[in-house]
Design brief:
single chain, 123 residues, mainly alpha, Rossmann fold, two-stranded parallel ribbon, 11% strand
């Protein structure tokens, strides 16, 4: 289970669809997607120190983003940009592919996406 920033934010904020994310196992998140979440939380007025405490409490497996994943995210972004997928979306999909997992997202633009990575929308 590789979480996109949108899915992780849904869980943290109790948004619709959050209940779809399984509570068992250790979720995987790219370091870049975790940065996205951190920035959103600080924009919401949460101090960086508190953000770190919140994220640490989740016991996530944070995956570094390497050169092969950069190449794959670049290709995914080029393939999907007309559908409105962001750099962060491409990062999550490349991470899921590298880990052989399913990408979980709250982003409706991913529905029906065919980039060779299983996708699980939460809403």
């Amino acid at each position: 289970m590789v979480l996109d920033a949108s899915a992780l934010l849904a869980v943290l904020s109790g948004e619709p669809g959050a209940e779809q994310v399984p509570s068992r196992g250790i979720p995987v998140v790219s370091a870049i997607n975790l940065l996205e979440v951190s920035i959103v939380l600080t924009r919401r007025g949460i101090t960086p120190r508190r953000v770190r405490a919140i994220l640490d409490a989740l016991a996530l497996e944070v995956v570094p983003f390497d050169e092969s994943m950069i190449d794959r995210a670049t290709a995914i972004h080029a393939q999907t940009r007309e559908r409105g997928l962001s750099l962060g979306d491409a990062v999550c999909l490349a991470t899921a592919e590298a880990r052989g997992g399913t990408a979980w997202t709250a982003d409706r633009a991913w529905k029906g996406l065919d980039v060779g990575v299983p996708v699980q929308p939460i809403r």
